[in-house]
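Entry 14. Structure prediction run on the chain below.
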Amino acid sequence: MAEQAPGDGAGGRESLELADWRRRVAALYAEVRERSANDPAAAWDRWRAVREALYREHPQSPVPIDARASFRARHWPYDATLRFEVEAEVVVEAVVEADAALVGTTALGRGTVGVGAILPMSAGEQLAFTRIGRVSLPFRGGTRTLDLFWMAGYAGGLFLPFQDATNGHETYAAGRYLLDGAKGADLGGDLATGRLQLDFNFAFQPSCAFDPRWACPLAPPENRLDLRIEAGERLA
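Output returned:
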């Protein structure tokens, strides 16, 4: 997974718990993708309910143990205008802020090339990512772009973190996640057309927003939106 828990690698029991967390999250997103085809708002309601239960009850919850029983998730109302189906523009050559030891090109199939990148971390050692493309999003306030990453370690997976003008107020100061494929948080796409489903109503806080002992990769400068994204999870 993109985030590193304080107890990662601590023992067999923790490994089984982490495997169960990933399994449940992956199953939830599979259900979300299926339901969203006909009723995105109903899929979102299901997503909220299951995530809240996991955060309250699961041993791998990022919420501190003494706060789990009273935990209640908070969200903005569903906003259909913040659901997009967009083409992922492949990046063949890109300029990124990266550590020299991790810079390089990575074959991504059919000759596509990504560029090694280092993302900011809330704590702990840096993790390697590959910047594989970008998406253009037609917000009401005008079109904005976000870079799309692939995680090099763990199980890999698409990763799309972002910051917006709600950070530090209603949401975590360092931003939120929209996709985290290593955990199964994937809203779907169409391989034939290269298009992705991106629904900001499913934006969620990284684990370090609940407990600073977690080490989380964060949004780089190019993924900072100058808009308020009033959708998805909120803290206040």
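The first helix runs from residue 12 to 36.
Filed with the rest of this week's runs.
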